[in-house]
Amino acid sequence: NGLISDSDELTRLEHEHRANAGTKAAEKGTGIHGYNPETRKRYTVEGGTKTAELGLGAHGINPETGAKYAVEGGRKGGRISALARGQTPWEKKETERAYSLSLDPEFQHQKGPNKEKSDYKTIAHVLNKEYHNGEEVRSAKAVKNNLSTYIKTLGN
Fold it and tell me: How far apart are the C-alpha atoms of 8 and 81, rounded to whole Å?
């Protein structure tokens, strides 16, 4: 919305601006940059104690809510991380489809040591065809790992 549309350039300028402002504050002896280490530590402890007493910030979150936030944040972070690595995160529909295929005898080994166990290679092929325009996005190992995680959430 501003004059600079390149996000990398904007990020660089923001960082540069903050660094310059911090240097100026330290030179003038103002703000947190002007405190010596002992004073800074004392203020940090006092602020943390007051925040805890008032039940604000992280101190105001009960353990159950905190655990929920951690799980949600972890999921979100995991998706962002996967995208950054060029991976394609699993969508709920795709996972559910993989699970339903794994229950179908047509997608289970018919003989040998893995008889009646899921044929992850065939399931991966179907998922790639249905959800990824035939591109090899899902491997047998990825399907196995995702199904293992999904089945644990079912509580069976």
Answer: 19
Which residues are registered as beta bridge partners of 27? none
Task: Please choose, from the candidates 128, 152, 150, the residue with its C-alpha nearest in 3D space to the C-alpha of residue 139.
Answer: 128
Cα Rg of the chain, angstroms:
26
How far separated are the first and last CA of the chain, in Å rounded? 50
What's the 3-state SS for 44-83?
HHHHHHHHHHHCCHHHHCCHHHHHHHHHHHHHHHHHHHHH
Report the C-alpha gap between 104 and 98 in whole angstroms. 10
Confidence at residue 156, expressed as pLDDT on a 0 to 100 scale: 57
Instruction: Give the per-residue pLDDT at 114.
Output: 92
pLDDT single digits (tens) 15-69:
999 999 988 888 888 887 778 889 989 999 999 899 988 988 877 888 888 888 8
75-87 pLDDT, tens digit per residue, is 788 888 888 888 8
* Residues 6 or more apart in contact with residue 129 via CB below 8 angstroms: none
Task: Locate the DSSP E strands across 100-141.
Answer: none
